[in-house]
Amino acid sequence: MEKKLYTIIVHSENFAGLLNQVTAVFTRRQINIESLNVSASSIEGVHKYTITAWADEDTIEKVTKQISKKIDVLQANYFTDEQIYQHEIALYKLATPVLEGKPEVSKIIRKYAARIVEVNPVFSIVEKNGMSEEISYLYEELQAQECVLQFVRSGRVAITTSCFERVNEFLAEREAKYQRSKGL
Questions:
Q1: Does the pLDDT value for residue 11 go beyond 70?
Q2: pLDDT: which is higher, 179 or 28
Q3: CA-to-CA distance for 53 and 32, rounded, in angstroms?
Q4: How, if at all, do strands 84-95 and 46-55 pair?
Q5: How far is it, in rounded angstroms, from Cα 26 to Cα 63?
Q6: How far apart are CA 157 and CA 160, in angstroms?
Q7: 89 near 129, Cβ under 8 Å?
Q8: Are 71 and 131 in a shared domain?
């Protein structure tokens, strides 16, 4: 089966140890996590895990179902790149003497709509927000200029392109069931 990059979005309550449980699902199946980002979501008390991994659809579906079964997980869904809007941020520490001495370095930075956020006599820091590929291409071009001292990038952050948030429907349904069980 053909492997492709999938994004799994997990919504959970914020309990210690859940991240370990989620990553263990990948470890058991010997799937490498490409990126992982955990943050608060737009829903109070709910956290959002955005995980990317290369797999075939059958495997990623099984992984997502296993994650969904974890007690503190509210919901887990997997998406292809076409079903989400995704973004990353990267920081590039460049040697200032090279940046000043090679005009092509500044041209590369402008070409990728990156911005210089710090300059001192030893190093300069460039920030780039955007798609994964753009961040990688900028790194490769700067690396070819032999000016990169350090490079770091965030994990993917993503939202679905659908008009609704699946976890909101799940929470509304759960609340309705609770109200019915209490006779309210």
A1: yes
A2: 28
A3: 6
A4: unpaired
A5: 7
A6: 10
A7: yes
A8: no
Q: What pTM value is reported for the model?
A: 0.77
Q: Supply the range of the domain harboring residue 72.
A: 4-79
Co-location of 71 and 126 in the same domain: no
CA 140 to chain CA centroid, Å, is: 21
CA atoms within 13 A on the CB side of 38: 12
Please answer whether residues 6 and 77 qualify as being in contact, where contact means their C-beta atoms are separated by less than 8 angstroms. Answer: no
> Domain of 123: which CATH number?
3.30.70.1150
Of the pLDDT bands very low, low, confident and very high (cuts 50, 70, 90), residue 9 is very high
**What sign results for the dihedral spanned by CA atoms 53, 56, 60, 63?**
negative
- Could you give the CA distance from residue 120 to residue 87 in angstroms, rounded to a whole number? 28
- Tokens, residue 15: 């309990």
DSSP letters for 106-136: HHHHHHTT-EEEEE-SSEEEEEEEE-HHHHH
How many folded domains does the chain comprise? 2
Q: Which helix (H) or strand (E) holds 52?
A: strand 46-55
Which residues make beta-bridge pairs with 150? 93
Q: Quote the CA–CA distance of 163 and 42 in Å, as a whole number.
A: 15
DSSP state of 184: -
